[in-house]
Specification:
Layout: E1 2-7, H1 13-27, E2 33-38, E3 52-56, H2 63-72, H3 74-80, E4 85-88, E5 101-104, H4 113-121, H5 125-144, E6 147-150, H6 153-163, E7 168-170, H7 177-182, H8 189-196, E8 202-206, H9 216-229, E9 234-238, H10 254-263, E10 269-271, H11 280-285, E11 289-292, H12 301-308, E12 313-316, H13 319-325, E13 329-332, H14 337-348, H15 351-365, H16 370-385
């Protein structure tokens, strides 16, 4: 089967994680010929075996220009490649696709009322308008695609209710244990120094670049409660820096950075900066509890990574978090720093509970597999190609 993968929207986070794991598995198959269209700016961040054909999209595309290039130029590229199926990985489908089209939908913001409320509260009216237009396109895209793939059962259900379409299939994203723990390289001295500087405090971790829907502010308020009200010596390690020039997209970091100062927790928040994906296991291993207050998610890869590393998880009460972690996490109201602080206090002082959650999480992480994800994906592709 000749497969064409449209990965031009992958620029950071989950999009790159997906291509980084799926492309090598597709390349190993003798029954597949794969062509991948990508943004040339991320070419060096992805593995491309020799038997995978790479098409670099033109430089300089913003989201709007990229969408137009996909709609009017990409179909000719798909025909030229002799493709039998298109896999679109960036939430938007081709309206007039020359072959059957499988759409990966992985952006819960289009369905999130919390995100819209958040943008209004921040007076981000331009972003709100752009979000509204993209939501309309994303909804139409599900109608244009022959089948839509969601990375979790809970998100698949949300998409069916949102669009009224039944052709939405849930296939969990995977996790490759061997690959994740393979690299023996040490962390940069600056990063390792920050991790080693707090050996006798409660070390919390959150892995994400800064954006609004990851709800950093709730994390900061919970840290303030832990340190000031409950007298807990705590550090929250972030894999980002709250600086505008290091923040992808148009999210504004000033309010979050100011909140740290306002709460008086500058010593408790440690900004490690971006960590190479292959070295993340060392950061997880240096911490004790993984926390997330996200109010919108579709899968949340860091949860699986944290569980694989034996970290107990404290997560916001999203259905997708509960689906991914099950009993390896405790859950709190996503906008309640008080509940988050109480959950951290509840488990941090109970070694037996911490060990049981770590054991449960490791077992749960082994239930996610990229190879199994690709096999299930190929079953759907073959059914479309045979129509």
């Amino acid at each position: 089967m000749r497969l064409f993968v449209n990965g031009t929207s992958a620029s950071a986070g989950g999009g790159l994680t997906y291509l980084r794991n799926v492309i090598p598995i597709l390349a190993l198959r003798d029954d597949m010929e794969t062509t991948v269209a990508i943004d040339p700016n991320v070419f060096d961040q992805l593995p491309f075996p020799e038997n995978v054909t790479v098409l670099k999209s033109p430089l300089g595309h913003g989201a709007g220009r990229r969408f137009l290039w996909e709609q009017f130029s990409l179909p000719a590229q798909i025909r030229a490649a002799g493709a039998e199926v298109l896999l679109s990985t960036g939430n938007f489908a081709l309206r007039k696709c020359p072959v059957p089209q499988l759409l990966l939908s992985g952006n819960s913001l289009y369905l999130s009322k919390d995100f819209s409320r958040d943008l209004r509260a921040r007076r981000e009216y331009r972003m709100l308008a752009e979000h509204g237009s993209r939501s309309i396109l994303a909804r139409h895209s599900i109608a244009w695609a022959d089948c839509t793939i969601a990375p979790s059962e809970s998100f698949a259900g949300d998409l069916r209710r949102w669009t009224g379409k039944s052709k939405v299939v849930a296939i969990h994203h995977g996790f490759d244990h061997d690959s994740f723990f393979r690299d023996p390289t040490a962390l940069a001295a600056e990063v390792q120094g920050k991790l080693d500087s707090s050996p006798h405090v409660l070390r919390l971790l959150f892995v994400s670049h800064y954006n609004y829907y990851r709800n950093f502010e709730t994390l900061f308020r919970a840290v303030a409660l832990l340190s000031q009200k409950h007298g807990k010596d705590v550090k929250l390690f972030l894999t980002c820096r709250l600086r505008q020039d290091e923040t992808p997209g148009s999210y504004q970091v000033q309010r979050a950075a100011a909140l740290i100062q306002e709460l008086g927790i500058t010593e408790s928040i440690v900004e490690l900066g971006q960590i190479p994906n292959e070295l993340l296991h060392r950061v997880y291993g240096a911490c004790q509890i993984y926390i997330t207050a996200s109010y919108a998610e579709t899968f949340a890869h860091p949860l699986v990574e944290a569980m694989a590393c034996g970290l107990p998880v404290v997560a916001s009460d999203l259905p997708v978090h509960q689906e991914i972690c099950r009993d390896a996490a405790v859950y709190f109201d996503r906008f309640s720093p008080h509940e988050l602080a109480q959950c951290i206090l509840k488990i941090s002082g109970r070694q037996e509970l911490l060990e049981e959650m770590a054991k449960t999480g490791k077992a749960r992480s082994h239930e996610f597999s990229w190879s199994r994800h690709v096999e299930e994906l190929l079953k759907v592709m073959r059914s479309l190609a045979q129509k």
